[in-house]
Amino acid sequence: MGLQILPYLDDWLLCSHTQEQAMMEIGQLLSDITHLGLAVNFSKSKLTPIQSVEFIGIILNSRLMKASPSEQRVNSILLLLPRFRGRTRLLFRYFLRLMGLRAAAAAVIPLGLLGPFQRWVNSFHLNPNVHMKKLIKKLLTWAFPRLASVRVMHITGVTNGLADFLSRHKPLSGEWSLNPEVVELIWQCFGSAEVDLFASAMSAQCPLWFSLAERSSPVWQDALAQDWPDLSL
């Protein structure tokens, strides 16, 4: 079996099931690294198996199965926050620094990206829709314990045709149909139909159907002008 390693650039975390297995795999890993011609920074490495370790700014505790930001990461955020209090102008690098720190901590902090930074940005009233902000926060609060992740995507109106079809294009007159599940329930109660008298290739529920104008109709066009077949209609 291979080694289970969590790599982040040149930082590697070796995961093992037992202390004995970890000791054996550490030796194997060091041997493989040497064979590849790579150098290990032993002063920054921890080669003794432990169940609570700091890795890329996150404390991972395999005994409690918990993850939390390191003390250094928390202090970095706390030292940066006072720059945003009572200020309307800041250097852009402070924004990038805070956003980076919060994004890195968001993986282990529930709703970590909601907080003082968002409230500070909102104080500029860049978006007047306060109700929408509250709705988004309510949605994220609901989604957190239920969903693995939530992603927001902007789809341009040109490519978002399905969502905007009713408001922009209007449906074709008479072009509608029942949900197939509803049709199935009706047929279970009253028997299945064999011919759809007023339909199209898009809306037909039966294998045989009359169309108002489509020549592809398997029966004929305009059911009101034709003799109906002796089948269930």
Summed up:
The protein is of the alpha+beta class and 233 residues long. It is built from seven helices and seven strands, in the order E-E-H-E-E-E-H-H-H-H-H-H-E-E.
Q: What labels describe this entry?
A:
7 helices, alpha+beta, 7 strands, single chain, elongated, 233 residues, two-stranded antiparallel ribbon
Kindly describe this structure.
With 233 residues, this protein is α+β, with helices and mostly antiparallel strands. Among the domains are: 47 residues, no CATH class; 57 residues, no CATH class; 46 residues, no CATH class. It has 7 helices and 7 strands, in the order ββαβββααααααββ. The longest helix has 17 residues.
Look at the helices and sheets and give the structural class.
Answer: alpha+beta
The largest β sheet comes out as: 3 strands, antiparallel
Poorly predicted parts:
none
Count of individual helical segments: 7
- The oligomeric state is single chain
Number-wise, the strands total 7
Distance between the termini: 65 Å
Name the average pLDDT: 76
Helix content: 25-40%
What is the molecular shape? Answer: elongated
Measured by DSSP, the beta-strand proportion falls in 5-15%
Topology overview:
Layout: E1 4-8, E2 11-15, H1 19-35, E3 52-55, E4 58-61, E5 66-69, H2 71-80, H3 92-106, H4 116-122, H5 130-143, H6 161-168, H7 180-190, E6 195-199, E7 208-211
Parallel strand pairs: 6-7
Antiparallel strand pairs: 1-2, 3-4, 4-5
